[in-house]
Amino acid sequence: MTPEISRRDLLCRQALGLGGVAVASLLSALPGSAAPPEIAAARQTFDMLPKTPPAPARATAMISLFMHGGPSHMDLLDPRPELTKYSGTEYQGEVTYSFVNRASKKLLGSPWRFRPHGQCGTEVSELLPHTAGIVDELCVIRSMHTGFNGHEVSIRYLNAGIPAVTGRPSLGSWVSYALGTENQNLPAYMVLTDPGGHPVDGVLNWSGGWMPAMFQGTVLRPQEPRILNLAPPAHLAGVPQRQNLNLLNSLNRLHQQKYPGESDLEARIASWELAARMQVAASEALDLSQETQATQQMYGLDKSETREYGTRCLLARRLVERGVRFVQLFLDGQPWDNHSSIRTTLPAACRRTDQPAAALVRDLRQRGLLETTLVHWGGEIGRLPVTENHGDPNACGRDHNGQGFSMWLAGGGIKGGMTWGETDPLGHAAVVNRVTANDYQATLLHLFGFDHAKLSFLHNSRLQTLTDQRECRVVNEIIS
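Request: output the structure for the sequence above.
Response:
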């Protein structure tokens, strides 16, 4: 018969047991003791030196053109003739609305025409004439799926691996942690924000989460000067600045010796040193006067509608060209969140971004950079085939849809001139070759030379991964 024990005895025994575990961990850290791999990982130092992936890499850098709000796939990249055929009739399937009070079950066919383009014949909407001109470089994925209709939950799923969970490292942080940077005078991960403000979910989009701060995105200001206080005052330039920096470096190293293994301290010291080196490197990288007039016109810098976004796309190319690993471009708010007046708001978003995005791919190709640079275009969700505000054809729009939507990838080992996956005939849900957010992440890491299940970071005594060991696969069919 098992003797009864009191609650106090139970707690004491458990506490002693946990104490034994802690002592064992401490003893394993003594000289001559073999530490478990998790403990050894916790004691590693962090830096931004370039690192060699365990497998051959197709990509060495990535530019993500993130389209916040959810571009309407059936109006841009996923032609649905059945939707056009039955436009105005009642949808017979089940649908989940984000805004029930404005919902309808009336189908809305696309008001815009699709035509095949390029040698591959990929069909693209007339709203994207410049994207249509580069389809032979693109893999258009028409079966993306998050399973969630909300913006934030799907953004976190695509960008950080788990839906609805905050505080995790973003995709760019994982890439910079895994690969470091090829240019020690520039950050590995850079973010180009919009003059209109931050995107949905704000700074969480480029957070390093529980990784050391050196792996989070470095934000460039959306207008000049893009980095404040980059140049030293005239009376401190040259020898005085160098002497001050040398003294600061000596003091930092002495302080670091007193607190070994403090990753936050290491990250701060690395950031200070990088800031000094950036005075020359960043100024040169951000100087668009070095670009020819033809290049600037290709990106649309000569037009008011495309100048701002075109400038950031051109800066992204210049940063990658100089060894930055990961560059993300964000838009303010949700310009693709076309709940109403889609006939005017959707074309406006396309006019702003279509030419610069296509120019980026062309420019990378002509400079020999596209083979090793992944380019991503897409948002966190798509739109529903039914309408909101259906009574007024000029005011109608489309609600959120995470069941099926489109994005495109180019370069970095991706097959060009192809489409992958399908939504159902009305464009509601991905039904053929569905690609989840974790499938997307596993495929990207594979192109960088990493196994998504093995690239890990020790946090809270657990080896964490971008895909969180969730069931997913590398989409080998879209790799060249």
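The chain is about 35% helix and 15% strand.
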